[in-house]
Amino acid sequence: MRTNIIRHENMMVSYDVVNGWTVIEVDGEVDAHTAPVIREGVIKLLDEGHRHFVLDLGFVTFMDSMGLGMIVAITKRLRENEGALRIASASSRVLKIFDVSGMRRSYEILPSAAEATASAPLPGSLAHWPHPSSG
C-alpha cells in the first residue's frame, strides 16, 4: 500500500515496501526547495527502521545538482546504517546529472522499480560506495 509522506507545491513523495525494499516514488521537481524535504523524509523512514531503498525517479520532471546532493547525503546515511540504495526509472535528463558529476558508476541504476526490487537487498552493499565493488 503506497503511503504519501511529503506534499510540497511542486512535488509529492510516497513510499511502498516491496521485497524488503522501501520504494520511494518522487513525483515533481527536485531542486533547492524540495531536495532537503525529500532528504528529511527518507531520514525519518530510516529512523523508523527502513534500511534498503529504491529511489524511483520516473515521475521527476526536473532535477538539479541539489537533487544529486540530496541523493549523496542519503547514501552516506544509508551506508552508516548498513543499508542499500538503488535508483530506478531515471529519465535521460536526470541521468545526465549523474554523468556530468561522474557519479553514475557509483550507483546501481535500473530501468524500473520492478527490476530494482526483483532481488532482495544485501545489507552493507554500500560499504565500498562511492566506488563500486564491480565494474
UniProtKB/TrEMBL annotation:
It comes from the Bacteria. SUPFAM superfamilies: SpoIIaa-like. InterPro entries: Anti-sigma_ant (IPR003658), STAS_dom (IPR002645), STAS_dom_sf (IPR036513). Residues 11-120 form the STAS domain. Signal peptide: none annotated. Belongs to the anti-sigma-factor antagonist family. This is Anti-sigma factor antagonist.
